[in-house]
Amino acid sequence: MSGVDPVVLNLTVFILAIFVGYHVVWNVTPALHTPLMAVTNAVSGIIIVGAMLAAGPKELDVGTVLGLVAVMLAAVNVFGGFLVTQRMLDMFKKKGK
């Protein structure tokens, strides 16, 4: 892969991920939306770990700043996703008591 420009390779992977993600989310049956949300939260948790590794160096450069932004955005995504998942699960509980 020495002849391929890394930017082109990364852009290709990004576009393919968008395409696959779109089809996975929109073709899932409604009964599986809650488990899909839970898996998405787990993936965002992994992104937080990677972003913390990117933000870890002591010198302040573009990678560190982008890592900090990624940590904040992924944390909002994880916590918001858990709240939405909890609300979805609450819909399955019996009303009464």
UniProtKB/TrEMBL annotation:
Subcellular location: Cell inner membrane
Residue stretches making up the NAD(P) transhydrogenase alpha subunit C-terminal domain: 10-94
Catalytic EC class: translocase
Membrane topology: Multi-pass membrane protein
Protein name: proton-translocating NAD(P)(+) transhydrogenase
One Gene Ontology cellular component annotation held by this UniProt entry: plasma membrane
Natural source organism: Sideroxyarcus emersonii
GO biological process: NADPH regeneration
One of the record's GO molecular function terms: NADP binding
Catalytic function, reaction form: NAD(+) + NADPH + H(+)(in) = NADH + NADP(+) + H(+)(out)
Transmembrane segments: 6-26, 38-56, 62-85
Lineage: Bacteria, Pseudomonadati, Pseudomonadota, Betaproteobacteria, Nitrosomonadales
Role summary: The transhydrogenation between NADH and NADP is coupled to respiration and ATP hydrolysis and functions as a proton pump across the membrane.
Keyword annotations from UniProtKB, A to Z: Cell inner membrane, Cell membrane, Membrane, NAD, NADP, Translocase, Transmembrane, Transmembrane helix
